[in-house]
Amino acid sequence: MDEQHPEPVAPSPPPGPEAPTGFRRHLTPPMVMSTLALFVALGGTGYAATKLPAKSVGGKQLQDSAVTSSKVKNGSLLAKDFKTGELKAGKAGARGAAGPAGATGATGAPGPQGATGATGDTGARGGFSSVVTRSIETNVAGGGTAALVVARCNVDEMATGGGGSFVNGSADNTSLGRSAPIRVLRNPDGTVVSTGVQDAKPDGANSADGWTVVGTNRTGSAMNSADSRTLRAFVLCVPRP
């Protein structure tokens, strides 16, 4: 039976200045791992704060009141970045100068015709502005025949002027004699007394209400109807005042 001898044990090195004897004896693997984990945790926080991936921070990552005025670049926000009604309207600016007049627009289409209005009251009877021309014509035979023509106003009118002429024929063969205002003789009912006339007088009731013209036709012969000429007399009448 062999005799068993204990294995020799290597002598421990003397303690040196770089590692205390007590610390080296108690440095176990679990202690080394926990120490490394502590340094990674502390160093990892600083790394993540300065090395964030692009587009990794959004509204969910920001805390309330995290973005303050000092963190916003001046002049970088637009009106659309604010909630409706948040920005108050400023005071009205000074009124600008008037712009140039615009071009004239096209003429519009005519509108529909309006309804006929009610008939107005009859106006007062006019004075001399209501002038009416009344005339009469007669044929005058040739050969030197003379004729008298009388143009008359109505019974409620008075004459303000008149005249006469031959409608056809040359001035060499026809001529006018008398052309003057007259007072027409009338019955009480206003009808004309035959063909009687008298010279007009300037006083009221005998004022002129007609015009007489005398004309002579010297064309050819009185026996030839082709030589007759037409004599016309006219009178300008207005209502009596």
SSE map:
Layout: H1 21-25, H2 29-50, E1 132-140, E2 145-152, E3 157-166, E4 174-186, E5 192-199, E6 210-217, E7 229-239
Any overview of this molecule?
There is one protein chain. This protein is α+β, with helices and mostly antiparallel strands. The protein has a domain at 139-239. Helix content is 11%, strand content 28%. It has helices at 21-25, 29-50, and strands at residues 132-140, 145-152, 157-166, 174-186, 192-199, 210-217, 229-239. It has a 4-stranded antiparallel sheet with strand order 2-6-4-5, with no helix packed on it. Strands 1-7-3 form a 3-stranded antiparallel sheet, with no helix packed on it. A hairpin with a 5-residue loop joins strand 4 and strand 5. The chain is rod-shaped, with a radius of gyration of 68 Å. The chain starts with 20 loop residues before the first helix and ends with a strand.
Order of helices and strands: HHEEEEEEE
General shape? rod-shaped
Strand order of the largest sheet: 2-6-4-5
Weakly predicted, low-confidence segments:
19-23, 45-49
Specify the number of helices: 2
Radius of gyration: 68 Å
SSE class: alpha+beta
Instruction: Please give the alpha-carbon distance between the first and last residues.
Output: 187 Å
Main pleated-sheet profile: 4 strands, antiparallel
Strand percentage, roughly?
25-35%
- Helix fraction? 10-25%
Counting DSSP E segments of at least 2 residues, the number of strands comes to 7
Mean pLDDT: 78
